[in-house]
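User: Hey, my collaborator sent me this sequence without any context and asked if I could get a structure. I don't really work with proteins. Can you help?
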Amino acid sequence: MEENIINIVQKNIDENNLIKNGDKVIVAVSGGPDSMCLLDSLFKLKDKIGFEVIVAHVNHGIRKESDQEKIYVEDFCKARNIPFYYLKVDVPALSKERKMSEETCGRSVRYNFFEEVRKKEKANSIAVAHNLNDNVETILLNLVRGTGLKGLTGMDFKFNNIIRPLLTIEKKDILLYNKELELNPCFDKTNEEEIYLRNKIRLTLIPFLEKLNPNFIENISRMRGILKEDNDFIDNYSDKILSKVIIKEDDSKIIFNFSLFMDEHNSIKKRIIRKIIERAISNLDGIENIHILDILNLLKNNIKGKKYIIGNKFRIEILKKNVAVIYNEGGKHE
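Assistant: No problem. I've predicted the 3D structure and written it out in C-alpha cell form, which is a compact way to encode the shape of the chain:
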C-alpha cells in the first residue's frame, strides 16, 4: 500500500502541477490518519521532487486529547527534522465572540494560521489532506444545500495557495497506509458523532447509498470528472468575455460594460456576474441564485442611478447606459 499511495500522490502532484522543484510546502497536520498519510508521503517525496516540508498544527481547545495530539505531531517532526509551527486557540470562546458556529470559526482560525506560516516561511503552497471520500461528502453537502454545476464538481486539486495531493485516494486506503507503516495516528472522536451535517452525510447517508450501489464512491468520482470538464469549458469561455467587460478596477470598485455579455446564454450571464462579485469582494459567501437574478434584472432594465445592495458586502449601480459599477462595501478579505 505504501508504494501505491506514494505513486498516486506523485502522479497527482505531477499532473496537476502542485509542487515544483525548489518549492516550500506548508503541510496542515492534525495528527489524524489523513494528514499523517499526507505528511509521511510528502516527506518521502521531498528529495525526489526537490521541495521543503514545513508542518503547521492547530489546537482548537475543544477536546482534551488535543494537547496529546500536538505532542504526537511535534515528535514526528522532531524525529525527521521537519520545522513545526503550533497555534492554540480557544475556538468555543472565539466562536461565541464572533457569533459563528465552532465549525466555521475553527476553519477560519486554521486557514488564517496556515497562511500566516506560509507568508513567514515564504512558502509556495499549503497542502491539506482532503481525500476522495471528503470530496464525495462535499458534493453531497452542496447537493443537500442546493448548488449549481460548480458545486457538483466538489474540491479541486489546487485553489489559490491550497493544494490537495490526496484528492483521488479513498479513505480505506489511507487507513491501510497508516496501519502498514505503524504511524499510529490520532483519532478525533467528534468525527464519529452526528453533530454536523457533514458528519451525518459521512456516517448515515453515504453508507446507505453504498448499500444501494457498492460502487457509489467510484461513480460519484467519475461524475465529478465529467462535470468538471463541462464546468471548465464554461468557465474559460466566461473568462474570455470577462476580460473584455472590465473597464476600470481598483480595491474599492469595478466598473464594467454589461452590454458585452447580456446577449449570452443565461448560464454565461450568471457566471460572469458571480465572477465580477467575487473579483470585487474576494468571495461569494452568502451570495445565492436569487441575488444573481435580481442583479440580472437590474442590468436588463438599464436605468441610470438604479442600485442593488447586499448588506455590507457590495453595491451595484448603473452609472450610465450599459455601464455599471460594483462597490466593495466591506473591504476585501482573504
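In plain terms: The chain has a mean pLDDT of 93. You can pass these C-alpha cells on to your collaborator as they are.
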